[in-house]
Amino acid sequence: MKLPAIVHKFSSPKNFYTMSGKMIPWFMWSFLITLFAGLYYGLFVAPPDYQQGESYRIMYIHVPAAWMSMFIYMVMAISASVGLIWRIKTADLMASVSAPIGAAFTFLALVTGSLWGKPMWGTYWVWDARLTSELILLFLYLGFIALQAAIEDPRNAARAGAVLLIVGVVNIPIIHYSVEWWSTLHQGATVGKFDKPSMHISMLIPLLVMATSFKLYYAASVLMRARGEILRREQNTRWVKEVVENESK
Amino acid sequence: MSPSEFFHMGGYAVYVWSSYGLALVLLGWVLISPVFTKKSIIKELKMKYRQQERQRQEDSR
Amino acid sequence: MSAPEQISSTMGAFIALIKRDLMLSYRHRNELLNPLLFFVIVVTLFPLGVSPEKQLLQTMAPGVIWVAALLAAMLSLDTLFKSDYEDGTLEQMMLSPHSNAVLVLAKIISHWLVTGVPIILMAPLLGLFMFLPWDGIAALMLTLLLGTPVLSLVGAIGMALTLGLNRGGMLLSLLVLPLYIPVLIFSASAVDASMAGLDINGQLYFLGALLVLSITLAPLAAATSLKISVE
Fold it and tell me: Is this prediction's ipTM beyond 0.85?
């Protein structure tokens, strides 16, 4: 299957650099607006939980961060496959610069999960299915980052990384279900404390706003990283030379 | 709700605020660090291009 | 060449490659002992580190033996592609007209025959060390029979990715061990369940499914990664 020429032209590093420069401020501002709205609704407007009191407000960080950790892995896998199949440099780039952001969200989800677990379960760590899966996801991210760091040539690094990401995507559901099965086998008591059959709308809205905000944060952050990396990778082209010369001190 | 009551978080202040604080520091750093990286790349490239220019002038002389 | 001819010649290459690899490992048979010794020593450390108490060791046995098997299988991957990569045979193999995935599968099978099978045969002894009852030992061998090929297949992908790299060994474990987790979970729990006199068909079916899945997909992924590493 061939992609139309316009896609290649549009995704050329130079075009990407100019376009992303224009897009970043938009993402940044909408991120900040949704962030403040989410924090305001989450911290001030939403009522305390009838069981967990105020501690449930950790959810507004924890749950969106956990969603992002999986979302970013999927984005990485998809863009790495696009880069592998159609040899689009910017797609390779998006996968490799997304990894630190994804790892940061995964780490955040783990730590906030354990900070939430302390008042709820009485211990910082429980081998609960979701926390365990999240920990394994962090290992997968770190493995990808380590592989990228070990291979010097960016083209080879991208291709090897793409294989690893695709293998990871096939494995994630298997790992997830096996961990879930394992955890129901070993303990039934703690499972379900995070589960809510239905969340009140006043608690749900801030959660969705925060989730949107985190997505916008990712968009802004990944484009900023990609721009720096593009300059490095394309340093021998004429347009990068011009960009660098025009950059004020 | 008074400010002190708000910061108290019904007794869960430590957990709630350390979660939000960590999120702020970590995500803030992940967002800001590429700015510095990009600056250092540009500085590096400027130096490299200048060196190449000098090399070329010497060669043509 | 017509299509059936192509298939039969690939089949011939497949069998020839297995024979060649088995022959080569027979010549270097001393090296094959290393992962096996590692397997035995790691398991021996546990009674020394924890306690020689029968009850405790019995509870830990499925997990300990399986974790040791996992590590031994991972360490043994080192011999899978390395010598062929260093003397250029691998590059020739990649250039041959046969499907690379099939050739990679042949290499994995012969590798499993010389590293996986000895681990399975050694398991009863370790089961005795850890006071596993006979039911447990039978279940252990069954799960190893289904699980170790998965370890070789998945490990081949990681080995192919890290082939040309300095200090690839540490990286390999970082890439491969998280992917081994499902095998560990189902195998250890099967051994556990068999000691409690429970049915272990569920776990065995799952391990079988993992084996089928990895035998179809892993050679493709490993062949692609090998191409990247060889270039």
Answer: yes
